[in-house]
Amino acid sequence: MPPKGERRKQQIIDTAKEMFIEKGFQSTHIGQVCEKLNIARGTVYQYFSNKKEILYALMDSVIEKIEDVLDKDDLQEFLGVNPPQDKIVVFIKNRISQSISMILSEPIVIKLIFKDIVGIDIEVVDRVNRSVDSIKNVIAEEISELKNQGIFRDNLNHNITASMLVGGIMLIVYEYEKNGEDVMNQEVITSIVENYLSGSLK
């Protein structure tokens, strides 16, 4: 169990995230987060100087989760035993499905890009863009390694493929939210994975 301070910090992050998604980043204030958690402002300021720092912690956590799913050592260890092609495909499907689910279940960055980013100061815009780039880079490294291992097509551009995948996911989140549909539907995730792999596998 994490120490009390870490639990409190995570409570603040989780509550702020809910409010950012529900009310929008710009319409959410530290005082509202405190009120919802029934804590004093000083408690929040022990961990974060302002709401932007809470947002940055949120985005960093999304990147860390994807890095955990697409762990390079896990991939090398799996491929090191020369598994058959069908098991490789299942392994890759599971990794990319988990990554997609991670992005879909943490829509704050996507919502900021499509809805909240207009009018936000340049520091936040820059940090959001860098976070998206970090997500794309993690996926691009996975694609590059799978090319090197002879699993993905040699002529596949790993950076463009990663950008298309992340961009497509973001657009899907936007469209589904606009229509009030459940983006976490397994059929949606499966469809994204199948399209991704059909254009990538040798």
Describe it for me?
- This protein folds into 2 domains: 49 residues, Homeodomain-like (Arc Repressor Mutant, subunit A), CATH 1.10.10.60; 148 residues, Tetracycline Repressor, domain 2 (Orthogonal Bundle).
- Helix content is 75%, strand content 0%.
- The longest helix has 27 residues.
- α4 runs parallel beside α8.
- It is built from 10 helices and no strands.
- It starts with a helix and ends with a helix.
- The mean pLDDT is 87.
- It is mostly helical and 202 residues long.
What descriptive keywords fit this protein?
202 residues, mainly alpha, Arc Repressor Mutant, subunit A, Tetracycline Repressor, domain 2, 75% helix, 0% strand, elongated
List the helices and strands and how they pair.
Layout lengths: L3 H20 L6 H8 L3 H5 L5 H19 L2 H8 L5 H21 L2 H9 L5 H27 L9 H21 L7 H13 L4
Q: What's the CATH architecture name of the largest domain?
A: Orthogonal Bundle
* CATH homolog superfamily of the largest domain: Tetracycline Repressor, domain 2
| Class by alpha and beta content | mainly alpha
CATH fold node name of the largest domain? Tetracycline Repressor, domain 2
Identify the overall geometry.
elongated
Largest sheet: none
| Helix amount | over 70%
Q: Averaged pLDDT, please?
A: 87
Please tell me the total number of domains. Answer: 2
Kindly state the number of beta strands.
0
| Unreliable stretches | none
CATH class of the largest domain: Mainly Alpha
Strand content: under 5%
Provide the succession of SSEs: HHHHHHHHHH
Q: Calculate Rg over CA atoms.
A: 19 Å
Counting DSSP H or I runs of 4 or more residues, the number of helices is: 10
User: What's the N-to-C terminus distance?
Assistant: 45 Å
